[in-house]
Amino acid sequence: MKKEKTRWFGIPKLFPYLKGYGRLVLADMIALGFIGSAMDAVIPLFQQYAIDHFIADRTLAGLGAFVALYILVMIVQTATNCVSALAACKAEMYIGRDLKRVCFNHLQTLSFSYFNQNSVGYIHARVMSDTDKIATILAWGLMEAVWYVAYLALAIVMMFVLNWRLALCVMAIVPVLAVASVYFQKKLVFHHRRVREQNSKITSGFNEGITGAKTTKTLVIEEKMEREFRGLTGVMKRESVKEMHFRSLFMSTTAFAASAALAVVLWQGGIITMRGAMLIGTLSVFVNYAQGMMEPIQWLVQVFSNLVNVQVNIERVTALLDTQSDVRDTPEVTAKYGDAFEPKKENWEMLHGDISFRDVTFRYPDGEENVLEHFNLEVPQGTRVAIVGETGAGKSTLVNLVCRFYEPTQGQVLIDGRDARERSQLWLHANIGYVLQTPHLFSGTVLEKMAGRIAAQEGDTFLYEASKDKGDMLIDMVQETNADAIVLFMMKFCDPEEFDYPILKKQMEEASIPLLYLEVDQQMESYEQLRTRVQSFAEMIG
């Protein structure tokens, strides 16, 4: 199969995930970059005018207007640089946030097989490290690239306008940079890929060393783990040295070419000026442009190198986003039942619990042998079934198939007489209780989770609320019936409303409604004491 050629460093692959205000920020950065580069390209012309007019002619006529205009250009330049940096910061934040959010949400849609085949370290590097790298390069790299390209273009145009022969001498640097870029690009991409791949292995090994610390100590394999980790870091070191070798050669080559351009300007420009064919102010402009071109050329090389590097990150992130789940709902099922992020619970049926395996054969995506072959089983609703077998016999596989964590290779799994694939995974998971063998505890204590669950229940008698609905209801009843007082009966030690009595009492006092609270015991054999309390209460309210 022919590998698809990556264009523009893979950046177009990210366009579907960079919508909305992020594009507005990027557009602002491009516009500001052009304005800033124009200001930088104009400044040497002020030097030319000052030398050829004020110095050469020995006059100060128009100096005030000249200074005022120069200050205005400097103010615009400074303001543009500040706003451009702010736009780059916003773009970096937005791109990083959006890519992380898209990757995280996509991971929620993938089946178990993806997580079995890819380590935690690998996935973590994609979602965190790669997205951060992409956001930084796209934001700041774009701003710098726009500025430097625009400045070079304007500088070249101005040099050809001033003296085309000298401009051609300066432009001799372009073929050198082109040849160097083509050669070193291939070398840098190759070695950077190997560095990033090795970094993923190191991250994975580091995560496994932490999560498997108990197993490591139990098996006494600390030395083995250290030896394997040392081997990974050794390979990383060798590949990084090779990458830095070519990177330094690339930077040195471009720096030499840029310095050579300045030497040509001083040599040929000096000869032309001494012959009187060019003013000294114009020569100073060429010197400024030649010197000014050195930094953009070097930075463009750096930006180019960063784009080459980030191409690997983009390819890995887009590969993650392009990964399709082995277990997917059909468009028809999704349209009716919704998905994990937008469920349509109004269309969900009641689940009774009849389960049937019909001629089920199953093999794990990364497996070589069938775990189940032509398996049949009927589990009626309300039935308790114990499945016994040795490790690897397929006990957990049966549960995974019922929950649709995997799809049968052949056959059907029926839920209430219908193929499980005819209804959504979300509907099924919402109706199944599954106790994992090794459950994952999310951050936060159990008490915090319980408190949060209770707090989400409005009107719960266990919650302290300054205002109780029952109190308002009793006040309304008193007003509607023109009653004189309220007698409140509660079961002693059993009625949960007992906890609300202090609140109800305060509400009645504020409403000026007499209240008698009577505790009733289930084992009471005489009501004389209660009768006495009611009579006394009636005499008190008159």
Number of helices: 16
Largest beta-sheet details:
4 strands, antiparallel
CATH architectural arrangement of the largest domain: Up-down Bundle
The protein's oligomeric status is: single chain
How many beta strands in the DSSP annotation?
6
CATH topology of the largest domain: ABC transporter transmembrane region fold
**Estimated radius of gyration:** 38 Å
State the secondary-structure class.
Answer: alpha+beta
Q: Which regions have little confidence, pLDDT < 50, spanning 5+ residues? A: none
Q: Specify the CATH homologous superfamily of the largest domain.
A: ABC transporter type 1, transmembrane domain
What labels would you give this structure?
542 residues, Rossmann fold, four-stranded antiparallel sheet, two-stranded parallel ribbon
Protein architecture, described:
The chain has 542 residues and is of the alpha+beta class. It folds into 3 domains: 8-322, Up-down Bundle (ABC transporter transmembrane region fold); 331-430, Rossmann fold, CATH 3.40.50; 460-541, Rossmann fold. Helix content is 64%, strand content 7%. It contains 16 helices and 6 strands. The protein has helices at residues 21-55, 63-109, 112-117, 120-162, 164-170, 173-211, 213-219, 222-274, 280-322, 331-337, 395-402, 425-430, 446-455, 469-481, 501-510, 528-541, and strands at 355-362, 372-379, 410-415, 418-419, 486-491, 515-520. The protein has a 4-stranded antiparallel sheet, covered by helices on one side. Strands 5-6 form a two-stranded parallel sheet.
